[in-house]
Design a protein that fits this description.
With 129 residues, the protein is of the alpha+beta class. It is 36% helix and 42% strand.
């Protein structure tokens, strides 16, 4: 059974799950029809999202550092830095929450340093459109 977390805990948990590569946490707290959009494009469905993003994150994310979380009602914004081989990437994720689960996330960051770690094929896979 899923413990109910408030929006701040969900935002921190989201980043911590990627720090720890805790796929169990992500499967527990992402809605089944979870939607993720980023500068690369959009992915829909938790399993689909994880199957594409997990192997790429293992290549491109060396360290994530949470800087600040702002939360209210059923949403949160988390500012963090993604340490890549090419340097730090300031990032911001906007989470929308429904029924105690993360329904969607819109990510904002400059892709230049992330792209350097991913092949063109991997970058294309990040977009369902």
């Amino acid at each position: 059974m899923t413990n109910t977390l408030d929006p701040t805990e969900l935002a921190r948990g989201w980043i911590q799950a990627w720090i720890d590569f805790d796929m169990h946490w992500l499967r527990e707290y992402l809605a089944e029809d979870f939607e993720h959009s980023s500068p690369f494009g959009s992915l829909v469905g938790t399993e689909h999202y994880l199957s594409i993003v997990e192997p790429m994150a293992k290549k491109s994310v060396q360290k994530l550092v949470i800087k600040r979380v702002l939360a209210e009602d059923e949403q949160a914004v988390i500012w963090f830095e993604n340490e890549t081989a090419a340097g730090a990437v300031p990032s911001c994720d906007w989470l929308r929450i429904k029924g105690g689960k993360i329904a969607s996330i819109q990510s904002f960051y400059d892709t230049v340093k992330v792209r350097s770690a991913l092949s063109e094929e991997e970058q294309s896979a990040l977009n369902d459109d």
